[in-house]
């Protein structure tokens, strides 16, 4: 380093924070990311992106939905047309379930009814839902990791502003990098800084900084100017030169951390408009009063450990340091269960409409009405399952489920109406044809 830069410090200060490795996305994750990037400049960008993604996906699989719902509605109407005969069978075989089932199958075959006709598209739709569920779960963890790593980078960049390099030797560069010498002994090193802001050894190889030594003389000169220009800044102790290393290092590290914490918080706040939505602080966490906008380390680790693996407890110190200036967000509810209630409500409405559409099938499929009871139970269970998903997974996924359900609800109502009208017209044509046939036979006689 040269005699001019000899340091009076023999102890390192540690003002660095640790990032956490991110996760690899699958193709659905990249599709989600691409859509989010398209709308990243809008407030509530993530929520808008989720809505766009859901509408695109539902439109792509719409032919399957149409086929499935048309089949289901036709089968329901056929079942309704067989009601008089099936009600007779119910009375006739009230005490013989097996015989009732056999007679019903014969009647259904004779009328072209196939209870399995709509199953395959429904199964495909269920598989798609589970795949998207997995992708959203992975992406929410990816998003949380990316946000945290962005904050750690901002924190570190704020520290790097004070690190001496070969071509930066002014008073404001009072930190000197310490690197390992291969024997677990840190040594002073003056790196170069490349165009990306990385520290290198002069040959392009990035170096790993172990900690920092402090050039106290430079810091004293720098800080006097800084305090004069920044109202409210603490004054440099009058006996700075006489203070011990521990006291000096604490003063320096407190000052460096002050700017670094602010930089990390500013990164979070600058991205908050994209990840927030009305009452929700961060859509990558559940819309729940049991969650905070910025969770504590335990909540953060729980949210990302499925993607990043087991997170060492040593990360807690770094996490608390990076989020130090976000105490307000750490004490703010992330939501108020609104999306959870909406997810349950819309799913209940969809199940209710579906049951109404399948009323005949539910009432007549079994001799004792057991099928109707089972379907009523499903009408309750499905909304509860959706509520559990919304409770434990991100608000972004809750938005997906709500939009998905509303889309399905609207398309179901339209399809049911169209199929009902066409079925009635076809029934009227068949009835007219029968009447005309009877009239013709009478004339022949």
Helix/strand layout:
Elements: H1 27-38, H2 45-60, H3 62-81, H4 83-92, H5 97-110, H6 119-160, E1 175-180, E2 186-189, E3 192-193, E4 199-200, E5 211-214, H7 216-229, H8 245-275, H9 297-308, H10 315-322, H11 327-330, H12 338-357, H13 359-364, H14 370-392, H15 395-444
Shape: rod-shaped
Low-confidence stretches: 1-8
Helix content: 55-70%
Q: Largest sheet at a glance?
A: 3 strands, antiparallel
Q: Please tell me how large the radius of gyration is.
A: 34 Å
Measured between the Cα atoms of the first and last residue, the distance is 121 Å
Question: What is the averaged pLDDT score?
Answer: 83
Strand order of the largest sheet: 2-1-5
Number of helices: 15
The domain count comes to 2
- The computed structural class is mainly alpha
Beta fraction: under 5%
DSSP E strands, number? 5
- Order of SSEs, N→C? HHHHHHEEEEEHHHHHHHHH
Features:
mainly alpha, two-stranded antiparallel sheet, 3-stranded antiparallel β-sheet, rod-shaped, 2 domains, 445 residues, 5 strands, 15 helices
Task: Characterise this structure.
By secondary structure, the chain is mostly helical. It has two domains: 3-18 and 162-245, no CATH class; 19-161 and 246-445, no CATH class. The chain is built from 15 helices and five strands. The protein has helices at residues 27-38, 45-60, 62-81, 83-92, 97-110, 119-160, 216-229, 245-275, 297-308, 315-322, 327-330, 338-357, 359-364, 370-392, 395-444, and strands at 175-180, 186-189, 192-193, 199-200, 211-214. A hairpin with a 5-residue loop joins β1 and β2. The termini are far apart.
